[in-house]
Amino acid sequence: MTQAIAKGRTGAPPVLLGAAGLVAFVGLFEVLPRVGILPEAYFPTASTIGRTMATLVTESSFWVSFGETVQTWALGLAIAVAAGIVLGVVIGTVPVLRAATASTIEFLRPIPSVALIPLVIVLVGTDMESTLILVVYASFWQMLIQVLYGVADVDPVARETALSYRLGPWDRIRYLVFPTALPYALTGVRLAASVALILAVTGELVIGSPGLGHDIETANSSNSIPRVYALIVVTGLIGLAANLVARAVERYALAWHPSVRADVPA
Amino acid sequence: MIRKTSAFIATTLLVASMAACSSSSTPNAPSSSGPAVDDKVTVGVIAILDVAPIYLGRDKGIFHKHGIELTMQQAQGGAAIVPAVVSGQYQFGFSNVVSLLLAKSQNVPIKAVANGNNSTGSTSADFGGLFVKDPNIKSPKDLVGKKVATNTLKNIVDTTVKAIVAKDGGDASKVNFVELAFPNMAPALDAGNVDAIFVVEPFLSAAKAKGWKQIGSYADVDPNLCVALYFTSTQLMTQKPDLVKRFTDAMKESLAYAQTHPDEARAELTTYTTIKADDTKNLILPKWPGDIDKTSIDKLAGLAVTYGLLTSKPDLTTLLP
Question: Which of A6, A47, B74, B303 is at 20 to 30 A from B137, Cα to Cα?
Fold first, then answer.
């Protein structure tokens, strides 16, 4: 739908527009340091960053760090998504639980994960587990809130119909709650995926647990500025890939939903 | 639909487990040929020049000779290393002397076991130095009322800068300090956000290359200034005195080796930092004496009291071996 509108207005396919935007951005980063608007010593040109990335991908230690960051991210995301779905459905379907936990959730949710860094260093240490805790903590709330909203969004008429037809608790979850909550949950996964990546890299940067974030810090303290930028671009690409995958899953799992079906007006 | 969603979750878990398998173990000591199995020891270090001897000692088999299999954990600073050593996550750690004095004054159960690194003794060619850009700042006392960048407030760098200013006859209490990480100092001085920076290698070479003027160094505090030490927890000290002694012996040997083989020490830098091999040739390496210079630590402790980091001078015998 939105794609159709974009195409109708400009006449160019959105993929081309997106590519043009990217090229312009890269071009700007090539020109600004060259002409001296940005000091080249601290802002390497896009081509320097590209060359550094080319050597980076030939180093085995880079791929080890890459694997470590992806592992922390994926594991943290999986735990947060699983916990968010289970707790979200349980809390969301039991009104008493929802009322009892609402204020606690609203208190815990806004605590920035990074504020817990000193705590996890003392309690858990400086290994991957510390970063994992931060990742799970931050992305869990994204998931839980979406699932809670999704569960609460069940159409009252549909709910009463289900009750009239005496659907059991399991069937109500399967045919009533699940289709309603699924779009919310998948949005939650997408939000949680990017938050999880932010926290994975932050944790590695600040705590020093192994991964790309730690490599950024090492490159920084070695005054290897192009390498710092190259690693940052890599983390950005991981985020981009994660978002693309999450969107693809969304389109696939919600093919029936009006928000995804282009032929039916929402 | 359930199947599709569960397939997605399964995929996520699969990716996670695959990543878990691919992360290889840390490289360690050379193949064991000795009769006994080496004690596995984890040391918390910072990825800077100062710790080249321990890496060199590991790769030269010095630690293996003393029955120790070393694993280095790179932490982001003493703030992360000290708690990890006390909790036993690391058996040993590397930290600057002032951080250790501060920890000791708060009764943190730690004990120094080996020397870390020292000033080169040359005020013009030390591995840590004070730089200015403004030509009107001619000597350290001109920094009174000016802004100076330090990597940590109330620690070894600002104490050093204060000592340099005081030595030149300036009022050290009137120097303003701004906390900036070493990598951010040169850009800040370039932009005029600060008037002076105290940097260590490799940033010192970069500051020199910029043509900025050096007006002080670690050597101004004491020509043999002990900057950092290796330490352990008092718990490990009492539980495994033999292991601690072997670590101390191996460390002494590694320090001596690095001191007499500077080219190998420079080459070692490329294994745990991302400094390019060509750039390592011009870096000023610290001095790596095998013994702890107690006189300079005593001096630092005195300065820490003078500048209000400590309320009273700690009993150094509780910290030093």
Answer: B303
B128-220: CATH topology is D-Maltodextrin-Binding Protein; domain 2 (3.40.190)
Cis preceding linkage at B140, omega within 30: no
Q: Which residues of A116-142 are buried (b: 16+ CB within 10 A; e: fewer)?
A: bbeebbeebbbebebbbbbbbbbbbbb
What residues of B are in contact with residue A63 (Cβ under 8 Å)?
Answer: 22
What SS3 state is found at B231? strand
Using a CB-CB distance cutoff of 8 angstroms, which residues of chain B are in contact with residue A122? 83, 87
pLDDT band of residue B130 (cuts 50, 70, 90) is: very high
Q: What is the pLDDT of residue B18?
A: 40
**Contact between chains at A74 and B16 (C-beta distance less than 8 A):** yes
In chain A, the residue whose alpha carbon lies closest to the alpha carbon of B22 is A67
Judged by CB atoms closer than 8 Å, whether chains meet at B23 and A217 is answered as no
Which CATH superfamily, name and number, covers B39-119+224-319? Periplasmic binding protein-like II (3.40.190.10)
Point out the residue among B22, B74, B275 whose CB comes nearest to the CB of A208.
B74
Query: What are the start and end residues of each CATH 3.40.190.10 domain in chain B?
Result: 39-119+224-319, 128-220
Q: What is the ipTM of this complex?
A: 0.72
- Give the pLDDT of residue B16: 40
Query: Is B202 in contact with A227 (Cβ distance < 8 A)?
Result: no
Q: What is the pLDDT of residue B199?
A: 93
* Interchain contact, A67 vs B19, CB within 8 Å: yes
Per-residue model confidence as pLDDT tens digits over A142-191: 999 999 999 888 888 988 888 898 888 888 888 888 888 888 999 999 99
- CATH architecture of residue range(s) A60-253: Orthogonal Bundle (1.10)
Q: What is the pTM of this model?
A: 0.77
Using the beta-carbon criterion (under 8 Å), do A71 and B23 form an inter-chain contact?
yes
Q: Are B155 and B100 a contacting pair, CB within 8 Å?
A: no
- The first and second tokens of residue A101, run together, are 């936990």
Tell me the three state secondary structure of residue B110. Answer: strand
Q: What is the pLDDT of residues A43-87, one digit of tens each?
A: 888 888 899 999 999 988 899 999 999 999 999 999 999 999 999
Per the model's pLDDT, the better-predicted residue between B20 and B74 turns out to be: B74
Contact B12 A208 (CB under 8 A): no
Which residues of A have a CB under 8 Å from any CB of B? 39, 42, 63-64, 67-68, 70-71, 74-75, 77-78, 81-82, 121-122, 125-127, 174, 178-179, 182, 205-208, 210, 214, 217-224, 227, 249, 252-253
3-state DSSP call for residue A238?
helix
Question: In the numeric block, which tokens belong to residue B97?
Answer: 């002397």
Query: What is the mean predicted confidence (pLDDT) over B71-99?
Result: 85
Which helix (H) or strand (E) segment is B198 a member of?
A: strand B196-200
Q: Do A249 and B16 touch (CB under 8 A)?
A: no
- CA–CA distances in Å: residue B240 to residues B104, B176, B246, B251: 21, 45, 10, 17
- Say if B271 is an interface residue toward chain A (CB within 8 Å): no
